[in-house]
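Dear colleague,

Thank you for sharing your sequence with our group. We've completed the structure prediction you requested, and as agreed, I am returning the results in plain text so they can be pasted directly into your records. Please verify that the sequence below matches your submission; if there's any discrepancy, let me know and we will rerun it promptly.
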Amino acid sequence: NELLRMREIADKDLLKQSEFALAWELDTTKRNSFVFDGFTAQDRPSTFGQTRLWYDHTAPWTREIPYYDRYLRRDIIQAPQYYVVPLAWREVVERLQCNHVLMQRLDRDSLIDAEVYFIDDYKSPSKPYEGHFNHNSVRVSKRNVRVQCFEGDWLIPMDQAARRYLIEVLEPQGEDSFFAWNFFDSVLQQKEWFSDYVFEEKAIELLAADKNLAASFEAAKLQSAEMQESRWMQLYWIYKHSPYYEQTAFRYPVFRITGK
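Please find the predicted structure tokens below.
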């Protein structure tokens, strides 16, 4: 009964919580200690060469061991009022439903002002874990964008018991997010490009028409010797900073509505 009562209090507190940590790091500036009984460790010759670890049960010891039990919050996230998950991401929606997440479908196509993440960088292992090449060290940038949502897309309110779960799986930087588990990998491929022999004339026009763009282009060249020597890299830089660049490339497909 006491456990159930404390769980109920924790659930109510969760609904009031606006900040969430996606990662933690050990606080090495503070520590406790405890008394530990052990045996003296020795190195003994190994049958297979070198040495092996061995504990001498005739040489016990007792001493105070430092115990670090405090962690500092890292990667603080402000909870939105809603998430929007487009209906195309069926496998994600199915898992949310299996975890009893409350969701409702949009009843018409809508333009919505939302916070949108763009995946700036990430790392992946060379070997799979549990059948996935889990992403880590994910870095994102966030922009306020008016996005096109469609009838049938899923609107997910955060005022519900699954609040913490939603933060963990829908924020792409989370260690166990759906992004980390490869559910959104198709957004990591740029699908539209340019033909350099055609685009060069347009690139010249863009630089001539926008002095700020031209200045940024020259600054980017000064910072990269590789770019100075590569015609294609220079054209690609201009393309990426033009209206013709694929706007959804590397755009995380789950949107945040903050109500601000």
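Summary note from our side: The chain has a mean pLDDT of 92.

Kind regards,
the structure core
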